[in-house]
Amino acid sequence: MHRKSIIIVGCGDLGTRLGIQLSEQGYEVYGLRRTKNALPSLLKTVSCDVSCMTSLASCWPARTFDYVVYCLAASAYTEEGYESAYVTGLHNVLKQLQGNPSKRVFFISSTSVYEQRVGEVVTEVTPISPKHFAGVVMQKAEQLLEKVSYPTTVVRFAGIYGPGRERLIKKVQSGEVCSEDTNPISNRIHIEDCVGLLMHLIKLDCMDQPLQDCYIGVDNQPVPLREVTLWLAKQLGVTPSKDVAMGRGGSKRCSNQRVLDSGYQFKYPSYKEGYQALL
């Protein structure tokens, strides 16, 4: 039986977690990262800068991969940082695949492509017209995938939280809660469900089950951010002392119905289960 091979472009927290689980499931996994620091032994480390075609071409393994998972993180929250990571980098990887395509390319995008601001429900077919640079750049990256001849799938994650991603907890511990004036609808997903969803989609494709070209990766419960922070304060035994403006991603209710229809079951279906596990 053919052992499936995967290269994960961008082995930070998410990519490394995914790579380890895939390797434990019997996949041959290569992990590409900017630094020369070796990844865990279950992954074959590839070190290069995908934003530089010369660097990428010199280090890309001379083989065909069944799957490519592009989950690079921008080095800076700036338009230049995003362009380099998500547009230039993805363009170079797709160019490298010319003539030797994979079975499918997965691109990790963001719900920042949705511009909605007043709590509208958005799905994978909701038209996108982002105005902030983060969403604009992500849309440009997604459009690159529309030009290739092989299958691609975009996964738009919302606010990822989990071990090492405890910024909101620390804010609440300091007495801060979301003000009623801002109070956007918050869409979240635990890092373990990010990995679980990607594993689920890859396995479906391995079994030749049909995949959609886009999925929204959020849990089952979009909820006002003030509710989340007040709940965390109660769990932490903190008396809120400061109402502050929170949230930079607009305000929308992201639907995960397409994910649920695919058969994925969330380990942490809402923020309560996910944050309770952290606490």
From TrEMBL:
Q: What InterPro entries would the database entry show?
A: Epimerase_deHydtase, NAD(P)-bd_dom_sf, NAD(P)-dependent_oxidoreduct
According to the entry, every stretch annotated as the NAD-dependent epimerase/dehydratase domain falls at 7-202
Q: Name one GO cellular component term.
A: cytoplasm
- Coiled coil located at which positions? none
Q: Which domain of life is it from?
A: Bacteria
Gene Ontology molecular function, alphabetical: aldehyde dehydrogenase (NAD+) activity
PANTHER family, from UniProt? NAD(P)-BINDING DOMAIN-CONTAINING PROTEIN-RELATED, PROTEIN YEEZ
Protein name per the record = SDR family oxidoreductase
Species annotation: Zooshikella ganghwensis
